Here is the input.
Amino acid sequence: MPVRGVFFDLGGTLYTYKHVPRSHGELLTRAAERLGIADARIVKKAYGDAIAALSAEYADKSYYLHRDLFRDAFIRCVDMVGANASDEVADWYIDAHRDSVFGCLEIKPDCIPTLTRLREMGLYQCIVSNIDDDMLEPLVQREGLDRWLDHWTSSEAAQSCKPHRGFFELCLQKSGLQAHEVLFVGDSPEHDIAGAHALGMRTALIIDEGMPPPLQAGKVTIEAHHTIRSLSELPALVSA
Here is the structure.
């Protein structure tokens, strides 16, 4: 069946995560200083363990705010190193985390040329992102992506998180398309590929070079219909 619309994930798909580890490492170093911990490596190791555990726990939820996930991961991290995360420190961290991620997410160089070409081909385009409104809206506006998108929807707006079907169903309703008419492009086998496939969408797993997708719970996934390494591959793929 011909593709009439392309649904995009955001982070790792239209934007690269390549600067996130360095930026978040710097944030955790600042957190260690606030907590009076001399060796920031201890905090970084604890955070890695905490976010892995929380990702698995949150994977069973059909909806959650990502600010709550990251706040809980930070609090658990602090508990693991034997410190105390006061409300003041936790509030500071979650605000700084949002600003850090927003500042270091970099749009992929072939994003806008690809969106432009797909628009010229008459395809419906939208973003379907597991992200809170206070991150999605500013990122769309910062790069002017609204010029090429028919809609963009956060998990917060949908009150549903990928891979749960409610988010996909809402975006299909917005588009007026049938699932078999949509190609879903994302970097997460668990969130994007498994969720979209369950509704009957075609799927394309995009590789964000050197950056494994975040917040994976280790669940069994299925193979995507296509695997790509750049957005610029999409025009040829949808017209094949």
